[in-house]
């Protein structure tokens, strides 16, 4: 799964890469823990020319209390394969967004002499440019919230994320506009064609 990532926040890099303009200052590009439910930069399918901030952790319309819902339900990530069948997500499949990132973080589990070690890795795309993770969003009380979609790990992430064997759905440059235009989900189930590099940190 993906619970830590470094958002893309530098306006010039975002404008060059995504042809979108931030509506407001986006803060610092630092590795962020999703369980703080931060506001993060996204591009919404309703306004692809702009970057806006949305709260990480999708809150559906039926949640009576946002904080209570987020404590009970982990909506930081959603499996793309089951998206259309789960109550928390099925009403938002057409609400597409690009989640703008510089890198994300996962831990490799290794056992040495009977002791478990969790080794952190920072992962980015091979071109060292900002990239987009596939997301969906909800609008509730005029507040945007989103979740990052995940899929089966590719070869690199299968080696690193060797317990859950999942990874975020990372979109290729040519796929981003198709995603925002609500292309069917199934073409994004496998991400072996996305070249990633990882560094132990």
TrEMBL record:
Its EC number is 3.4.-.-. Pfam families: SRAP. SUPFAM superfamilies: BB1717-like. The keyword Lyase applies. Keywords: Covalent protein-DNA linkage, DNA damage, DNA-binding, Hydrolase, Lyase, Protease. GO terms for biological process: protein-DNA covalent cross-linking repair; proteolysis. It is an enzyme of class 3 (hydrolase). One of its GO terms (molecular function) is lyase activity. This is Abasic site processing protein. The lineage of its organism: Bacteria, Pseudomonadati, Bacteroidota, Cytophagia, Cytophagales. InterPro entries: SRAP (IPR003738), SRAP-like (IPR036590). Belongs to the SOS response-associated peptidase family.
């Amino acid at each position: 799964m993906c619970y830590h990532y470094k958002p893309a926040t530098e306006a010039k890099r975002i404008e060059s890469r995504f042809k979108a303009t931030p509506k407001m200052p986006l803060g610092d590009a630092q590795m962020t823990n999703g369980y703080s439910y931060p506001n993060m930069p996204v591009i919404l399918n309703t306004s692809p020319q702009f970057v806006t901030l949305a709260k990480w952790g999708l809150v559906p319309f039926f949640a009576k209390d946002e904080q209570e819902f987020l404590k009970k339900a982990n909506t930081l990530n959603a499996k793309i394969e089951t998206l259309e069948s789960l109550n928390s997500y099925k009403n938002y499949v057409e609400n597409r967004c690009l989640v703008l990132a510089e890198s994300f973080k996962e831990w490799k589990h290794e056992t040495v002499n009977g002791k478990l070690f969790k080794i952190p890795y920072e992962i980015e795309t091979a071109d060292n440019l900002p990239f987009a993770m596939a997301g969906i969003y909800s609008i509730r009380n005029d507040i945007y919230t989103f979740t990052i979609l995940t899929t089966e790990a590719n070869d690199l992430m299968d080696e690193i994320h060797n317990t859950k064997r999942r990874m975020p759905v990372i979109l290729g440059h040519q796929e981003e506009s198709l995603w925002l235009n609500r292309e069917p989900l199934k073409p994004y189930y496998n991400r072996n064609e996305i070249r990633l590099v990882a560094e132990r940190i």
